[in-house]
Amino acid sequence: MKFTDFSKFKDDIDKFLNLAKNGEDVIITKAGKPILSMAGISKEDVEDYILAKHYKLDKKAKNIVNSKFLNHKQVKKHLGI
To answer: Where are the domains of the chain?
Structure first.
């Protein structure tokens, strides 16, 4: 896990993006307080991340068609993923 101040992050953003891309968690601080975290994500994990972080989106997607539940493939189609 790498901690960096926001000003250092801005000055060398590519370095920190590469760290996150390669599996390193990056915590960005401002005035010594954490304000942002970054972690890499694979193409395969994006769908799970979206659904885990945005449970309301998943709930709405299940009720798109006449309050009927959709199967996983239909949910993905409606969400465009």
So the answer is: 2-38, 43-79
What are the residues whose beta carbons fall under 8 Å from the beta carbon of 36, sequence distance 6 or more? 6, 27, 28
d(CA 54, CA 75): 14
**Global pTM value:** 0.60
Q: In what order do the strands lie in the sheet with 26-30?
A: 2-5, 26-30, 33-38
**What class does CATH assign to 2-38?**
alpha beta
For 32-47, how does the pLDDT look when each residue is reduced to its tens digit (9 = 90+)? Answer: 999 999 999 888 888 8
For 42, phi and psi rounded to 5 degrees? Answer: -90, 160
